[in-house]
Design brief:
The complex is a heterodimer of chains A (206) and B (173). With 206 residues, chain A is an alpha/beta fold. Chain A has a single domain, classed as Rossmann fold (3-Layer(aba) Sandwich). Helix content of chain A is 35%, strand content 14%. In chain A, α3 links the parallel β3 and β4. In chain A, α1 packs antiparallel against α5 (142-157) and α1 packs across α6 (161-167). Chain B has one domain: NADH:ubiquinone oxidoreductase Nqo5 subunit (Beta Polymerase, domain 2). The N and C termini of chain B lie far apart (81 Å). The radius of gyration of chain B is 21 Å and the shape is elongated. Classes of the chains: A alpha/beta (206), B alpha/beta (173). Chain A binds chain B through residues 84, 87-88, 91, 95, 117-120, 122, 127-128, 175, 177-180, 182, 185, 188, 190, 195-200, 203, 206, and chain B through 129, 135-136, 138, 143-151, 153-155, 157-158, 161-162, 165-168, 170-171.
Chain lengths: 206, 173
């Protein structure tokens, strides 16, 4: 497996004028045509529908084209309570979305488990997914999610996709054997949560 | 003829105790051994043709520990009856009523899944929501509310996912 270092720059002008301007162009295109993947898992899904609908109208920000195929999306909105049974499906949907992709945790349930301090609920989707923005509220108003999308647009503005490419920043690896680009893996990380997970032996000792 | 009078006429010969319930539903308490016969009589003689739920209550410091509850609805008379029966923690067994009310198969499976009460005679009594090899019963009072290894199945799935080689067979050919 060789590292992906496309278009390795040789001169000292690798952070030059051209890369910066092309970055701006790419980011402008990306931030104004976010395609959300609505993962409406509970009551937050209703607010998400209201946000897409005419009253709140996220087409003003270019993010109204909600598709139910992850292959056509680049913004995953996890709206609602993610249970451990649903976690595999959510992670699979995230893996199936093409790069670049962003994740919004909508509502307290997906941000931290919320009031479901329970054995069946994932205590924050950041245990299984990399999250860009957390939206508080139970459920959050559609305005709050629109605000999150605007903040995400500001975040996308600061990204440097072309510069990364020219500097050879490693965002994944190209597997020669399988002829496939493999994104750097996001490991399952139980330490991001304050949730106390007991081992079976621990439980018997109590 | 009130609900209670109808039940008393139908359950002639079975000992039961009328207990008060908070919201006023007619509630009777019986021994677990009489449960099958009582419910059969409620269906055939008293006109309760629908089962609303089968569930249990864990009253942990008390003995007997579990309290099984069935509720039945009569469309004809427009009233409910609730049947309570105590179940010992040392022998958490109860008779199934799936031969009287086929729809209770799922309710009894859920009750088994959450409280560990075994319904004798149930055809497919296995875990409904929790993993099949799980050793604990979540709605018992001694179960920690944050769970025991709630992420185990996801963790195993995540490990398999990362070990999987994409298109490995295709590249060999």
């Amino acid at each position: 497996m060789g590292s992906l270092k496309a278009a390795q720059s040789h001169s000292s002008s690798d952070e030059g004028f051209l890369a910066t301007r092309v970055d701006e162009l790419v980011n402008w295109g990306r931030k104004n045509s976010l395609w959300p993947m609505p993962l409406g898992l509970s009551c937050c899904g209703i607010e998400l529908m209201a946000m897409i609908g005419p009253k709140f109208d996220i087409s003003r920000f270019g993010a109204e084209a909600a598709r139910f195929s992850p292959r056509q999306c680049d913004l995953m909105v996890v709206a609602g309570t993610l249970t451990w049974k649903m976690a595999e499906a959510a992670r699979t949907i995230y893996d199936q979305m093409p790069d670049p992709k962003w994740v919004i945790a909508m509502g307290v349930c997906s941000s931290s488990g919320g009031m479901y301090d329970s054995y069946s609920v994932v205590q924050g989707i950041d245990m299984i997914l990399p999250v860009d923005l957390y939206v508080p509220g139970c459920p959050p108003r559609p305005d709050a999610v629109i605000d999150a999308i605007m903040k995400l647009q500001k975040k996308i503005e600061r990204e440097t996709p072309i510069k990364n490419l020219m500097k050879g920043t490693i965002v994944g690896e190209y597997d020669e054997g399988t002829k496939r680009f493999v994104r750097a893996p996001n490991q399952y990380n139980p330490t991001t949560s304050s949730h106390e997970v007991l081992a079976p032996g621990e439980y018997e000792q109590r | 003829m009130s609900t209670l009078e109808r039940i008393q006429a139908g359950l002639n010969g079975i000992t039961f105790k009328v207990v008060s319930s908070r919201e006023g539903t007619t509630t009777i308490e019986i021994a677990i051994g009489d449960a099958k016969e009582t419910i059969r009589r409620l269906r055939d003689a008293c006109g309760f043709e629908t089962n609303t739920f089968v569930t249990a209550v864990d009253r942990q410091p008390k003995t007997p520990r579990f309290e099984l509850a069935w509720q039945f609805l009569s469309y004809k008379h427009n009233d409910y009856v609730r049947v309570h029966a105590a179940v010992e923690a040392s022998h958490p067994h109860a008779p199934t009523i799936t031969d009287l009310f086929a729809g209770t198969a799922y309710s009894e499976r859920e009750c088994f899944d959450m409280f560990g009460i075994v319904f004798d005679g149930h055809v497919g009594l296995k875990r409904l929501l929790m993993p099949e090899d799980y050793d604990h019963f979540p709605l018992r009072k001694d179960f920690p509310h944050q769970g025991i290894e709630p992420d185990r199945l996801y963790r195993e799935w995540d490990r398999r996912r990362r070990e999987r080689q994409p298109l490995a067979e295709e590249s060999e050919s």
